[in-house]
Specification:
about 290 residues, alpha/beta, Rossmann fold, 2 domains, 6-stranded parallel sheet, 3-stranded parallel sheet, 10 helices, globular, binds NADPH dihydro-nicotinamide-adenine-dinucleotide phosphate
Length: about 290
């Protein structure tokens, strides 16, 4: 038996279509389009590609998007001044700083500086606190996208054993909170976890966000489990995930491919966070489905 492949590309396209419709409604009701600003420090080519993709996606769904590229060597005080200016700019609903930032800049200081209502990455202490408390706010985009894939695919979560491998602030930790909020029994595994293969084998839902090509083998997977592969690893064979896909396909009940699984969802949910931030700031609702 072969797993059902969860088509992230198609699911993300549907999310973006809905957001385009809602963005038009927002623009009509608020008298302006949602505004997103992407900040990049230095000219790292990968950061450049990500920032361009985000800006194009925002424009594609009808938002106003602006990119600010600061030179390498920008000081924390200079970046803080820009963030403060954007925090005070009424036309800006969301801002994000492309990570990683070059030294001497520090990510925690940046996350804490961005006004929580404009923190559309959801990485700041305010929004992570809201997530923990089950309050409205911006939820980090990749785990939000994973939840949408699971619900669209009809994967049961209530009472399920969910294992998240990886405990980063941007994926693993918020992922665990979101699964917990859906009443899964959650284990968060990491590099010090003992008998990781056995831990994974107990999972009805396995989310892997590590950054090691094909680390999770087919025999680590419980037959029929939902396997979500967040990993994106550039290898000589192209882009591969953290899960040995061909092996897992034979055992899992559902699986996401790499590329075309989680990746497209991340940008879709950045746009969703931006629209929702704009709605909260403008006191306008466009409904969601
Ligand atoms: P981090 O490097 O921040 O975190 C990796 C996590 O994996 C850490 O918690 C680490 O544990 C854990 N880990 C490392 N080695 C092992 C191991 N041998 N066994 C078990 N756990 C291990 O990565 P990110 O969370 O930022 O990203 C993870 C992957 O997801 C990367 O491939 C990244 O490219 C991809 N990604 C993809 C996105 C998308 O949109 N598709 C978005 C974001 C990330 P410890 O804490 O103990 O060090």
């Amino acid at each position: 038996m072969s797993a059902t492949i969860i088509d992230g590309k198609a699911i993300a396209a549907a999310v973006r279509e809905d957001l385009t419709r809602r963005t038009a409604l927002f623009t009509e009701r608020a008298g302006r389009a949602p505004g997103l600003v992407g900040i990049q420090v230095g000219d790292d080519p990968a950061s450049d590609v990500y920032q361009r993709m985000k800006a194009e996606a925002a424009e594609g769904c009808g938002m106003v998007s602006r990119r600010v590229i600061l030179p390498e060597g920008t000081t924390q005080a200079e970046l803080d001044a820009l963030i403060d200016e954007l925090n005070a700019d009424d036309a800006v609903d969301g801002m994000l700083v492309q990570l990683p930032v070059p030294e001497p800049l520090a990510e925690p200081a940046i996350a804490a500086r961005i006004a929580p209502e404009k923190d559309v990455d959801g990485f700041g202490p305010g929004n992570l606190g809201h997530l923990m408390r089950g309050e409205p706010g911006s939820v980090p985009c990749t785990p939000s996208g994973v939840m949408h894939l699971l619900s669209t695919a009809g994967v049961p979560l209530e009472g399920a054993n969910a294992v998240v491998v990886g405990r980063s602030l941007i994926v693993g930790k918020p992922m665990g909170q979101l699964l917990l909020a859906e009443n899964a029994t959650v284990t968060i595994a990491h590099s010090r976890t003992r008998d990781l293969d056995a831990v994974c084998r107990a999972a009805d839902v396995l989310v892997v966000a590590v950054g090691r090509p094909e680390m999770v083998r087919g025999d680590w997977i419980k037959p029929g489990a939902a396997v979500i592969d967040v990993g994106t690893n550039r290898t000589d064979d192209g882009l591969v995930g953290d899960v040995a896909y061909e092996e897992a396909l034979e055992i899992a009940g559902w699986i996401t491919p790499v590329p075309g699984g989680v990746g497209p969802m991340t940008i879709a949910f950045l746009l969703a966070n931006t629209l929702e931030a704009a709605e909260r700031r403008a006191g306008v609702t466009t409904g969601s489905d």
